[in-house]
Amino acid sequence: MASAQTPTLLFAHGGGLCKEAWGPITRRLQDSPLLRRTPTTVSSFDYPYHGSKHDNSIAPRLFFVGSKSPRVVHPVNAWVSTNAQETYNVVQQLRQEQKQDGGEKRPLIGIGHSMGAISLWLTEINHPGTFDGLILFEPMYGLSTPDTEPLVDFLAGVTLRREGKWPSREAALKHFAGFKNLAAWDREALASYLEGGLIEGEDGSISLACQPLVEAAIYCGNAGWFSPEETTRPKCKISFQGGERSPFYAVGEFEAMRERSPHIYKVGAPMPKCSHAMVMENPELSTQKILEDLALLPAYAASADSRL
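^ that's the sequence the OP posted. Answer follows.
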């Protein structure tokens, strides 16, 4: 039975990924001196239309605004609000399980990437005090304006060009082993993603759990954006991490939040040679960033005096 002091780390994945993608990072965390000194529960979950929650019952509708501007209509367009609610539901389930396992509320730290990062953040904004700390790797953040349309064109276009189905698992694994767009990914991270990111059909064929049309619909929806007042609502420490090579890291926005609310926000140094997919490219450095941020939180501060 976990004690009232046992923290829980809740991992939220990015768009198109799945809960298993965190495997190389959670393994390293559990092997770290910090977590050996502070027994910790590790939990992760899939968002709707991803991994174990794959759902192709609603056909996406593809159309073009211009010759180079594909757009996809699908319920996942509303992912910002629906994923925040999904996150809150997951937290409530965790709290219910904790109540049955001893009755006391335990520290809860959210760790998210991209879509998952903004979803954790919005959950804390909507329900201040839900988390005891957040570590956010490049939240999908920013207002949708005419200036951001080329970025949507790029993300949707690249996604729609991907393959989504293969005749066998062997064919699927061979495809990903040589897929240039994922060449920078750590091989263990890629294998972990494929554990939950592929599903088998009745005929033995293999498909992506999150199909390219559905993932493209995520990018065709609005990213998260919060008013200055909303950014002051969280009651926990929030750390931002980003990749040195990423064009999606809204570091200017995050620095402004840190200046307004230094008691809430912290902005980490860019991760060298990393893109927006830093948690998949460099699990080792991502783990180190998480450990450094955990050591600053009350749940771990007492045991963080020695090496992480």
